Model the fold of this input.
Amino acid sequence: MARNSLPSIEITDNINSFNSLNTNIVNITTGIDDEKRQILEWLSPLEPNRRHHSVRNERIDVVGNWFLETDEFRKWSGACGGDGCDPQVLFCYGDPGVGKTYLRYDKNLPSRE
Amino acid sequence: MVGLYCDFLSQHEQSTTNMLGIILKQFVSAGGVPEHVRQAFEAARKGFGGRCLRLPDMLELVKTTMASLPQVFICIDALDEALPKHMLDLLRSLQGIVQGSPNTRIFLTGRTIVLGEIKEIFSTRAVMVSISPTKEDIETFLVRKLESDTERDAMDDSLRADILRIILEKFSEMQVGKSSVFPVKSRSLANYFV
Done:
């Protein structure tokens, strides 16, 4: 598994692993009109924000950052330039407790030279 | 960017329709309510008892919504914690989504037992990464955990150093064992603290 330096990964402005997910999730129940609230409730009863807050709070910076330098992640995220054949799905697998849930991407992280 | 966490404790509530629904819910929450979603809601409200969406209807709503967005990232954690039927339906639904939306990227995590289903359903559209902590990961994790230890009186520099040294030695032994002729099953971080 290659662990090259990560010069820059530009995905979108709001991708910061699950961090940006948090921003979207907290908006679910705040500051919305009644019709929108009804539609949101109708779409799904699930509310993943509590779990997400917990994961964010328990995450330890730096741990698992090697993952961002793998060829698989770089191809998937489009960091290799993209040739139209980039994989659309990235599956991270491993035993329970190895840290899969706590992987994160922060485009502001310094690359490892 | 949207996502969800599969959970053993919510297996029955986490139907495939509800899981796709939470994806759509996050899009709608972050922006306005798309017209096709509003129309589907109105149609459902007029139906008997304000009926819930069926999986094919929900999938179409998600696909239509995503087609209007330049790029979408969907993150789903712990696939193996969903009921097998729900997980397979979810993966097939995601396959339908990526087929019709080349800019969509899907990030999945799960135990190794799910690997076969991922390969079968996504074929060359998917890449896989085996996740296991490095020695640096273990050390950083341990240092942080020791720093946050609430039993301050029970800890001193000598004990702290012993904990770090012994666990890192064990980890190194396990790494050697993994590459031996008789592979040792990898263990998780959690196993160190049982």
Observations:
- Chain A has a mean pLDDT of 72.
- Helices of chain A lie at 18-26, 34-43, 49-58, 71-77.
